[in-house]
Amino acid sequence: MATTLDMEQLTVKCQSLYQPPQIELAVVLQSALRKNFADATVRVVDCPDLTQRPFNLAAPGLCGSPRVAEVGGVPNLIPSPRREKLYSLWQVPAACGLQHGMLLGAGAGPWPHVGKNSEMIPNLSITEAGRCNKSHVVSVEEGAMVQTRLPADEARSALLCNMFVSKGEPGKVFEIVCEKRTGADNFISCLRKALQARYNERTVAMGGVFLIEAGKAKVHVMPDFCATPIRNDDDLNKWLRFYEASAPMVCCTSLLSTDPGLDFRLEHTHCFSEHGEGGHYHCDTTPAGVRYRAYLQLAESAVRIDAPTETHQIGRD
Ligand SMILES: [Zn+2]
Q1: Looking at the domain assignment, is residue 310 inside a domain?
Q2: Which segments within 122-232 are labelled E, that is strand?
Q3: How far is the CA of 124 from the centre of ligand 1 (A)?
Q4: Residue 231 is assigned to a structural domain of this protein
């Protein structure tokens, strides 16, 4: 009854993006972060091996043909779920023009496997040696958030998914360390708004992983599909379940400064942990005690897969 769509049959649109010089970008990001955090440093460094703890990613690096990608979209969930929108994330690197590659990000879990709607934290790679799947889902079970590792061969995402995609190679990346939030923006919104302010209509996109090393964060988890249509953000917030998750949390993220004309969601971050908490990241709830460490890469292009034909702006936070 649940047929996975073949990505080769879906509409794929690609747009190349503006890539500022690395050093200039580091300065732009650092100066914005220092207006939102008491302490912040942005450096260009060799990417640490992200397959190791605490990151536990499926590939060691974020380099080689970096892209941001979005498959489906929020209109597949709101107002009413389109359950037939079921994608195999194994097909995403090829749709992005990569024979081999890694991806990470934020999507909706495979309802036929989980048995209900859920949050998905995709984290997988395809190499010559084979496939590696370290993806998780987080669902609501008896009122509580429950994180589960997906089986090695289960890499479907339903409805919507935002991803950072690359060859997963080592190389230079942006290392961002900041702590003690003093402003109103969450970590990713602060970066995104800085890019938007500096580069205006030229779209700059980034993605990768960040760790909430200290503190707690507000997350949401989607419960099972809503029986009644979701008409606005009020309905959405009544339906979602909100929790507080504790550090250390591994957060998979992608962000764009502006929409490059492809109806992109501008930021989307999902997190997982070794202690079983996870979900959709909103913001830290302990500004005085929070500390972030990120490894992010600039994207060369944005790839939009199976964009909904009827769209809206509800539920994109
Ligand atoms: Zn989400």
Answers
A1: no
A2: 123-127, 130-133, 136-141, 144-149, 156-166, 172-181, 205-214, 216-221
A3: 18
A4: yes
315 assigned to some structural domain? no
Question: Which two tokens mark 77?
Answer: 């969930």
Number of domains in the chain: 1
- Give the pairing type, strands 291-298 and 172-181: antiparallel
CA of 23 to the centre of ligand 1 (A): 31
- How far, in Å, from the CA of 106 to the mean position of ligand 1? 6
Express each pLDDT in 96-129 by its tens digit: 999 999 999 999 999 999 999 999 999 999 999 9
Q: Which residues surround ligand 1, an ion (CB under 5 A)?
A: 106, 280
Give the range of the structural domain holding residue 184, as residue numbers without chain letter. Answer: 11-305
| pLDDT, position 262 | 97
Cα(128) to centroid(ligand 1), Å: 31
pLDDT of 282 strictly over 90: yes
Query: Once rounded to an integer, what is the mean pLDDT over residues 14-38?
Result: 98
Ligand 1 centroid – CA 266 distance (Å) = 12
- Is pLDDT above 70 for 1? no
Q: How far is the CA of 92 from the centre of ligand 1 (A)?
A: 18
126 CA to centre of ligand 1 in angstroms: 24
Q: How far apart are alpha carbons 175 and 253 in whole angstroms?
A: 14
For residue 5, being part of any structural domain is answered with: no
Distance 35 CA to ligand 1 centre (A): 26
Sign of CA dihedral 49, 125, 151, 282: positive
